[in-house]
Amino acid sequence: MSTCSSCLATIFVYQIQIEDTYFLEMTVSHFKRNGHELTTKENILFINESLILDFYDFCKDHMNFATISFRIADEDWKPLHEIEKLIEVQWIDDIIVKKLVTCHIQPIVDINSNIYGYEILSRFSTSDGQSKSPYEVFTAAKTRNRLYALDKLCRMTAV
Question: Which is nearest to 47 in space by CA: 86, 8, 20?
Fold first, then answer.
């Protein structure tokens, strides 16, 4: 049984499609020289998330972005420059994995100030204690396809 990346904050394996075989071979050679094993299948390179920033920097210096696309799992292929969005919001995985959410209970009152219910508000912080707004957290979760995992964390914390 495979793990759904939207259910858990699993490590992404990026599939990188490089049209130019010379650039593909150059990339594999560069990373192997630096002690990293990469898997390839035809013109597709499989890279763990821990190496994706190094790969992206390497591409900026040596390759034409127009000939490179990426995807995660069976998602649609996207242009390589869009990978920056996923890299920028990696912090959301830390919030989910480390369960950095706090719940606050707020009463719901009617016009006569009678309490007729409660709502639970989720608030988030990073490992270093920095507060993150719910909007920022849910936007990051959506970008990284982690909405279900974040929602589950909020519900379980509330319970």
Answer: 86
